[in-house]
Amino acid sequence: MQLFIGGACAGKRDAVDRRFPAASWHRLAPGRPLADWRRQAPPGAVRVVTGWLDWLEAALEASADDETLRQQLAAELDALCVDERRFGTPVVVILPEVGRGIVPMAPGDRRLRDLAGWLCQDAAARAERVWYVRHGLVQRLG
Fold it and tell me: Using a CB cutoff of 8 Å and minimum separation of 24, what contacts does 10-15 make?
């Protein structure tokens, strides 16, 4: 798995598109099971998974248990890695970095940022390569 991380409008999508021009893109649907994207991905193509923040926001509204949600996300990241090895199909995850700003006053907004940060940490721990994108500049971190 490769992870591209950066802030809003930092150039993550463009960086992934340049590196993987024939990739199959999937945007997670808020309120739908995470595993749905795996059933729709064509075999053999690099698979790009995006839309995590919207999915997280909907998941937080449906559940008050952050730890269970984090475990669910970690299990999905593990499944991505297993599928990648099993089918030899590279997976690229694009995640937003949302923790560099002012700490929000609203508890729901803080939960969203906390969970997004944990997701980024868990994805980085599993990724073969991690790319940080800022102002269209791409730097390999790991």
Answer: 10/97, 10/133, 10/134, 10/135, 10/136, 11/133, 11/134, 11/135, 11/136, 11/137, 11/138, 12/94, 12/133, 13/50, 13/94, 14/136, 15/131, 15/133, 15/136, 15/138
